[in-house]
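Anyone up for a design puzzle?
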């Protein structure tokens, strides 16, 4: 048996040849072989007794999986707009010069590979990168020289000569240079709450009483949509089923967001406590933490916390001495797919499939993982639930506004002196956040990441809450020297790349939007182009299948509304009355390449003697 066969077999055997654990198998193979080639795919399919295409379609979906071999040391530079504005182009050039390769290439000896990657949850410490699983922050060209020299000496990114950050970042199980940068500690989450106080209360209550307390608290999901948490939990509890599942969505991939990173690092016990309370409330025996691949450096720490809780009888059988309350949690690592932040796509990933969203209804609380009711909430939501059981619903409602109870964690970054984490009550104004963060000449603020709203100075008095400006937590500040359309064009390129490609409005429409914004930036647009952007953006938002497509036009739609002068300064009527040409096939080509699908719009490269105007098969 050669090494490749042995590695593949061991990866499959570690999870009992379980087809549902395909993600774990592929992660192991990628780590050991630095690629997932056709031979590996065939071997995995044979071991799992499934079709080869089932393995190949998953391996091709996630950005951390590669068919060509990557270097033993994979360097991924963060390509977020914040990193760009903080000097990432110079960092990229320094890496290219030191390694003698270009972006997207692997060195001839197979030691180094150099690639771009979207936001890695370190926007407050930009420019940043991942070297294998090790994050490096606040990069400079000189630091790049030192890093490459050190890696050539010992070859282990984990041994880079860096000073570990504060708190658990310095724990031996983590030991990275990341800093929490907690700027303001609120009363709900970022404090020293007594361990398991909420679970101890829950163990004295029945399911209905727990659900009632969550409902009375008016807790709404902290992932952005703001769905009432108590209603979701009760739906799962009331749906007749043999099994139920609890999922923690720790896949915060929204550019500019990093609040859950801090909770995972410093308050993992509180998050797991909240998951356990949810399990008791809905009658679930199994839980999964879906950890984004960019946070894999936290995996050992989280596994240790889970193990300790099992030893303390806070997980496992008869939790807290309560007969029949059996609940345990496993950790599922992602592999670089923004789409998996959507709850049904996350579940698909945990089922060993492409991270594509499922059609709703039914909703996941009724029919989720393997067809069973599944509660999916993010890290912050579960932490809030634990604190509500500790202090009570009325205490929680004492913070925030009438329709937005509690506090909110804000990830603030960009052009400000004090980027980091702020826990503040709902209802705080944008201007108050800017003052707290030391914003420098703010001209635009992105609230809620690219799927949120880009606002101008005229809106800085608006309040951040569900009844006004809603956000999952990302607040990105741009000063008056930034090009608004450069920001918009970047985020549209991000959505084009991250679309799963399932539905036409998102797959094709976002490409068209990106092309037209590029045209505006070049000064080639007419007033009709602005009308086109508005109309197409509205159509994509209304007709896309999932949250990504429904919010992907937001950078354009909100900037059209809030920065009309930026557009009007670049738009002009042509003297000859003609409009700039548009090549539909060239525009479609990018969406075809990304999605590996044909378009519903006629493609002349595909012909059918009997029905040539129909869609080409996928």
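Challenge accepted. My sequence:
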């Amino acid at each position: 048996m050669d090494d490749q066969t042995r590695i593949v077999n061991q990866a499959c055997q570690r999870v009992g040849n379980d087809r549902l654990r395909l993600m774990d198998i592929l992660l192991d193979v990628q780590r050991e072989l630095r690629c997932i080639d056709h031979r590996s795919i065939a071997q995995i399919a044979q071991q799992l007794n499934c079709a080869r295409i089932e393995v190949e379609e998953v391996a091709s979906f996630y950005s951390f999986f590669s068919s060509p071999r990557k270097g033993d040391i994979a360097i991924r530079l963060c390509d977020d707009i914040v990193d760009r504005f903080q000097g990432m182009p110079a960092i990229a050039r320094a890496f290219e010069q030191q390694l003698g390769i270009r972006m997207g290439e692997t060195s001839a000896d197979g030691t180094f590979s150099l690639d771009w990657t979207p936001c890695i949850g370190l926007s407050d410490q930009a420019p940043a990168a991942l070297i294998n699983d090790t994050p490096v922050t606040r990069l400079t060209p000189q630091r790049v020289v030192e890093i490459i020299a050190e890696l050539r000496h010992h070859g282990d990114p984990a041994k880079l000569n860096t000073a570990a950050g504060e708190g658990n970042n310095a724990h031996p199980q983590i030991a990275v240079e990341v800093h929490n940068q907690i700027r303001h500690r609120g009363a709900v989450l970022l404090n020293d709450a007594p361990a398991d106080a909420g679970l101890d209360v829950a163990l004295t209550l029945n399911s209905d009483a727990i659900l009632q307390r969550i409902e009375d608290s008016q807790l709404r999901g902290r992932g952005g949509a703001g769905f009432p948490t108590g209603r979701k939990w009760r739906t799962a509890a009331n749906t007749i089923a043999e099994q139920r599942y609890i999922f923690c969505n720790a896949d915060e991939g929204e550019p500019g967001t990093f609040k859950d990173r801090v909770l995972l690092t410093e308050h993992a016990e509180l998050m797991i406590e909240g998951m356990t309370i949810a399990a008791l409330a809905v009658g679930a025996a199994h839980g999964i933490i879906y950890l984004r691949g960019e946070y894999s450096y936290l995996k050992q720490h989280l596994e240790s916390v889970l193990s300790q809780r099992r030893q303390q009888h806070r997980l496992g059988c008869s939790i807290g001495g309560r007969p029949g309350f059996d609940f345990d949690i496993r950790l599922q690592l992602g592999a670089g797919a923004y789409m998996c932040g959507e709850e049904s796509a996350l579940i698909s990933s945990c089922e060993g499939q492409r991270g594509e969203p499922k059609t709703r209804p039914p909703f996941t609380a009724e029919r989720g993982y393997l067809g069973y009711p599944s509660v999916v909430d993010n890290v912050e939501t579960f932490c809030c639930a634990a604190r509500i059981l500790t202090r009570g619903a009325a205490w929680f409602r004492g913070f925030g506004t009438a329709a937005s109870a509690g506090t909110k964690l804000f990830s603030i970054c960009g052009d400000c002196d004090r980027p980091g984490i702020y826990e503040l009550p709902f209802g705080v104004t944008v201007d108050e956040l800017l003052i707290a963060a030391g914003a420098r000449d703010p001209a635009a603020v992105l609230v809620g990441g690219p799927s949120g709203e880009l606002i101008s100075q005229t809106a800085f008095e608006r309040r951040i809450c569900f009844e006004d400006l809603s956000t999952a937590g990302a607040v990105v500040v741009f000063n008056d020297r930034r090009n608004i359309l450069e920001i918009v064009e970047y985020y549209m390129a991000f959505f084009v790349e991250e679309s799963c490609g399932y539905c036409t409005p998102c797959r094709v429409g976002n490409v068209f939007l990106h092309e037209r914004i590029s045209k505006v930036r070049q000064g080639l647009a007419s007033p009709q182009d602005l009308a086109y952007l508005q109309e197409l953006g509205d159509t994509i938002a209304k007709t896309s299948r999932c949250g990504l497509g429904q919010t992907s036009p937001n950078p354009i739609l909100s900037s059209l509304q809030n920065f009309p002068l930026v557009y009007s300064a670049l738009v002009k009527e042509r003297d000859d009355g003609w409009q700039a040409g548009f090549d539909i096939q060239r525009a479609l080509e990018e969406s075809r390449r990304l999605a590996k699908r044909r378009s519903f719009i006629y493609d002349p490269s595909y012909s059918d003697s009997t029905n040539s105007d129909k869609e080409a098969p996928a």
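A detail worth pointing out: The chain has five domains: 3-59, 73-162, 183-397, 407-468, 485-595.
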